[in-house]
Design brief:
Blueprint lengths: L7 E9 L2 E2 L1 H9 L7 E8 L6 H11 L3 E9 L6 H12 L3
Parallel strand pairs: 1-3, 3-4
Antiparallel strand pairs: 1-2
């Protein structure tokens, strides 16, 4: 997928075995035109997020993107408007 026409990239994933889902890694690896783009990531988790934050950072930076923010939300907080708005605000702050 060529993302050269975009200014900001946002990635989201559930946590699987304490890391982002493998399909997200595949998607990030397949991007074209992502070098130098601003990026952010978020994840959902039902327990401990493990190395999800660090893994997203590694994957995104390895493709030459400028990582602005990574955050997660526990499944019990998905319906909590305050918690979800924190993620929305963080993503909006990337520009």
């Amino acid at each position: 997928m060529d993302v050269s026409g975009y200014d900001i990239l946002v990635f989201g994933s559930p946590v699987w075995a304490f890391k982002p889902a493998p399909v997200i890694h595949t998607a990030i690896e397949s991007l074209k035109g992502c070098n130098g783009k601003k990026a952010g990531a978020f994840f959902t988790h039902g327990g401990r997020p493990g190395q999800t934050d660090e893994t997203f950072r590694t994957w995104i930076k390895s493709r030459g993107m400028n990582l602005i923010a990574v955050t997660g939300i526990h499944e019990k907080d998905i319906e909590n408007e305050k918690k979800t708005m924190e993620i929305v605000s963080l993503i909006k702050s990337i520009n």
